[in-house]
## 1
Amino acid sequence: MVEAVKTGKPVDAAATLKGRTIIQGVVFGFAFGFLLQKGGVGTYHILIGQLLFQDWTVVKIMVSAIIVGMVGVFALHHFGMAKLHIKPTRLGSNILGGLVFGAGFALIGYCPGTAAAALGQGSWDALFGMAGLVVGSWVYAESSGRLKQTVETWGDLGKLTFDAALHVPRKLLVPAVAGMLAIFLAVLHVLVER
């Protein structure tokens, strides 16, 4: 315990760090929601338009985020400013989770992030998606013990990354993939604007 200079009372460093982490999470959450809303992906007709291949706003935002995130995380890791926390590739749970997520997205027209942004801008229909998220999380938590013994063992490939799977150095792969995605965005923009 450390004593506060002004009050002389003990200060719990772990509690202070936890409080700071929560505040940072709230600030970044609001910023993320603001950017989702400003990008238009908190709007039902834009999300449904993407699912019907009529509006490409969501793909443009997601691919842009992948490029920025990939280059940013690589740079931070390369310079020792961040650690990678690679999750294991488990084909069974990835495929099943993707199907459940996709079905929920198609049925309600929102994913968890866009539902929160939509609710924040006053779209009350997003409450159904948020309720489904809470129920789905509870169901997953209740069945996680059984899932760890079954679905999560199917196709367990370990902590797999693209550079390791392709046997290409990360410092070559990241710029190459970022460049290909940038070209994809440019071509998509030209095709959509016609």
Note: The chain has two domains: 1-39, 41-193.
## 2
Amino acid sequence: MKLPTPEIVEVLAAGGLDFVVLDNEHALIGPRDLSAMIAIARGCGIVPFVRVPGHAPRDVQPPLDAGAAGLIVPHVDDADQARDAVAACRFPPLGRRSVSNSGRAGGWGGVGLPDYMEQGNQDVCLIGQLESREAVENADAIASTPGLDGVMIGPADLAVSCGLGLDDPELERMVRGIEETCRRAGHVMGITAPDGAGAASRIARGHRFVVVATDAALLVRSARAVVASAAASR
């Protein structure tokens, strides 16, 4: 989701999607809207993930305290960066996340600290995004990091970082290489897809989750279809 519009979360939930990724890396979604969108997602039964801008405590703490079910951390290039992300997102002894159960994630103080910390370490899903040639080479080490639940392939940034086009066969070989590494080692992996058919093909290749399009892209696609249909009838 790129648009800071909480109601769209309801619309997408009504469409039957399993989860949304609220983009806090590339989109202008402020803290207040992000909190509202997480709350609406939870109320509508659609799982709220947040793609954070980095893995510093200031990047991950607000969405976690607001009740995000999981985080996608961009540009994880090696195992050291994966461990840094885990340290920022997990409570001691697994990490160094600051603790406060007074927010939504802690039931506004209703969840005791021991249970709150256990939930944060066991139930919050942490995904590292692979978007560079270095990440491709380190995919197994990254995905094997304790406290990281899976990896997500970012084809667009991977292509740009390697100086490739999105249709370059070398990009496809790198993506397939990550997939083979993850399948062989039993790591959870995910990826993006432009549409439902693309999602189905990627699931068949072993991906456990697929981020399909964006809210803006879905709106544009639908608007263009309506315009084309109306024009064809004239």
Note: The two ends are 35 Å apart (CA to CA).
## 3
Amino acid sequence: MNNKLSEEEGQLLIKIARDNIESHLKNEEYIPPSDLPDIFHEKLGVFVTLNLHQNLRGCIGYPEPYKPLIDAVLDVSLSAAFEDPRFYPLTLQEFKDIEIEVSVLTKPKEVKVVNYKDYLVKLEVGVDGLIIENNYNRGLLLPQVPVEQNWNIREFLENLCYKAGLPSNAWKNEKTKIYNFQAQIFQE
């Protein structure tokens, strides 16, 4: 990853995400610090993951570098808390027990293969996050997911297909595109 954040910068991102969510829950306006590190103004992909008692409670992000990092974190922290379609909006009661994780992403690159079996060699569990595309179906899994689930690369690819609403073997289809990216992961 060419744009590395320091641990302090990562913890600052988490604090900003937390303060932003808390302000929203209290119907207050959140204004981020003005003296942010330069990297916060670079366009980077980012995901905010919320966990409640070690269970996923929300995860939303921008896989592509659409916006400056600070703007992206402000957007996706609220989306993870209040707009993840898998969950009800976060409550103030739950908020005190939420653990926040911020993943800052490299730009996704298409993984070119001659044969689908090449994916099994080219992709690495615990290093690569993956995006799959086939027609209008698209899915993404962050690099930490297969590690947390104890998946091998084949299981990672099959679950990526499920996430996109595709059959588990869609990664073998020549019309399917797979992109990889890496992430810097910061946890509370």
Note: The chain is about 30% helix and 25% strand.
## 4
Amino acid sequence: MRITRPPFAPVDFKDADLLDSAWYATADPHALWAQLRESDPAYYCDPADGREPFWVLTRYEDVSRVLREHESFSSRRGTMLCIVDLSMPDFASDEMMPDTDPPRHRQLREPVNRALTPRAIAAQEGALRRIVRDLLRPALDGEVFDIAQAALLFPMAFTGTLMGLPSEHWRRMSELTTMTVAYDDPDYAVGDAKTTLRLAHHELFDFFRTEVRSRAAGGTEATDVIGVLRAMDVDGEQLTERQLILNCYALLLGANVTTPHVAATMVRMMAHHPEQYRAARADPELRRPLLQEALRWASPASHFMRYAVRDVELHGKTVRAGEPVSVWLGSANRDERVFERPYEFDGTRQNNKHLAFGVGPHYCIGSGLATLGLQLLLDELLELVEAVEPAGEVRHLASNFVAGYKNMPVRLTPRAGLTDRKLAGAGA
């Protein structure tokens, strides 16, 4: 998705555009969101093509409210706009963590939280730092380097390590998870959109089925995330094989389809705002706010879906019980009512209450792991790279769910005075 700045011209759009994956790769969603925030913050979108209408909420306060108030806005019927009929029941309702409400959601979430505690994540820092260095090492020869493509394996390596997944499958699993959110993108589609989704789901579910069964046959319980899921006790019962597969899929999808695009955004901002990165190199206290600003700026998950449980009044309109409600995080994170100078990248921004990880009961369960990985990437960039130069056309992912990049060619200039030993260490 293109990240643009005001002044915006009025946007002439069709309601069907809000579902069209290609529109997000070529048009100007930020201009539309700004228009809707100002003139129609509770917009009733009717694609008029046989697909069910849905509400579009673009202001920070409304987005935050919907994500927090599970009593009024349920996740049980699905959390993403996609090609399926929004009026249909969700096939994973009450079985997959994203598609549950409290208290069921809390029962599924708490054991996984124990596997992803700050202490557990910190114990992986050495391995994660090596992954980051492996990512950057090929770029340190001064040749053109596609950071968007390289970053696709960045979260897969993290999550694959914690889930105990064989590394020889990581690249394919990264491709498959991207296919589930970019099913219309010509670089990822295999036939039509439904065929692409079906193929990706089948292959991912089959992989996790094999993983779950092999562990069961092994006779000993692993201590990785899949082992935690297998040992979970929910209402006095362990998860079924189907539930295990669905929740493994959900965890992998949540990591793989968002984090790469924050990593690419971080590198891109280093090219556009080198003075902010120099300041963070000199003062480590500036690194945390710089990372938080990169998360706000990228807002990789564009939207989430909920369904109204009861009638709710919003901006003088009534959202009826059962109606789909979409909330747009990329818009909320540019809301002028909350963020001063929202269209400026400010690495010193304080009290940055962005919603990049969501908010409320479904706050991203992997946020700690993602934050550590991105912090390590920022540290290594500051340590090894003096400057970033754009080196070709940036291509955007065709997806209504992920604000992502397909290609971002750059040229990295190593810092002066780096020793051969230090350069060799970027991959050790």
Note: Residues 193-218 form the longest helix (26 residues).
